[in-house]
Amino acid sequence: MSKSKPKFNIIDALVILVILVVIAAGIWFLTSSGAGNERYVYFVVEFQEQLPDFEDRVRARTGFAPEAEVRDSIRNLFLGHAWDVWSEPATLVTFDNTSETFILETIPDRYDVYVLIRGVGTENESAIMSNGQIVRVGQEMFIAGNGYTGIGFVTQIWTTWR
């Protein structure tokens, strides 16, 4: 009786290579699909030329409690929670014919109101999502909170780890 030694051949190498590729693809898919990649998504929505009481309505209605939900007012989709609110005098760029330059004028009795919204979402190479909704700078948003609604634009966005 002769004992034959098992031989390692090209088929064995291909099987091992396929197994390693499947494992690597699975790890890549799990890490890039958002599993374990959740972040806090902060974005600022600017409401232009609002009446003086708009900031007070947002602040009073929300109280910035965890239940101060902010939703998309058209699709009624949850976006996050109102985290902060502030206002600045509304301005407008106009052309001054006398000096032939553009000037920044303040609009009387109007304010640009900024609402900081915090949601939970993911970030990848192509998009930042807050609670399943894509959020981009410059995006027009239809916002509804408890006792207020408005149309604004996203002016800032950033994420932090949860």
How would you portray this structure in words?
- The protein has a six-stranded antiparallel beta barrel with strand order 1-4-3-2-7-8.
- With 162 residues, the protein is an alpha+beta fold.
- The model has no long low-confidence stretch (mean pLDDT 85).
- It is elongated, with a radius of gyration of 26 Å.
- The chain contains two helices and eight strands, in the order αβαβββββββ.
- Helix content is 20%, strand content 52%.
Provide tags for this entry.
20% helix, six-stranded antiparallel barrel, 162 residues, elongated, alpha+beta
Topology of this protein?
Blueprint: H1 10-32, E1 39-50, H2 54-62, E2 69-72, E3 78-96, E4 101-123, E5 128-130, E6 133-135, E7 140-145, E8 148-161
Antiparallel strand pairs: 1-4, 1-8, 2-3, 2-7, 3-4, 4-5, 5-6, 7-8
How many strands in all? Answer: 8
Write the H/E string, N to C.
HEHEEEEEEE
- Mean pLDDT, nearest integer? 85
Given the helix and strand composition, which structural class is it? alpha+beta
> Looking across the biggest beta sheet, what order are the strands in?
1-4-3-2-7-8
How far is the first residue's CA from the last residue's CA?
66 Å
What helical percentage do the residues reach?
10-25%
> Shape, please?
elongated
Rg computed from alpha carbons, rounded to a whole number of angstroms: 26 Å
In DSSP terms (H or I, runs of 4 or more residues), the helix count works out at: 2
Strand content: over 45%
Q: In terms of per-residue confidence, which ranges show pLDDT below 50 for 5 or more consecutive residues?
A: none
* Biggest sheet details: 6 strands, antiparallel, barrel
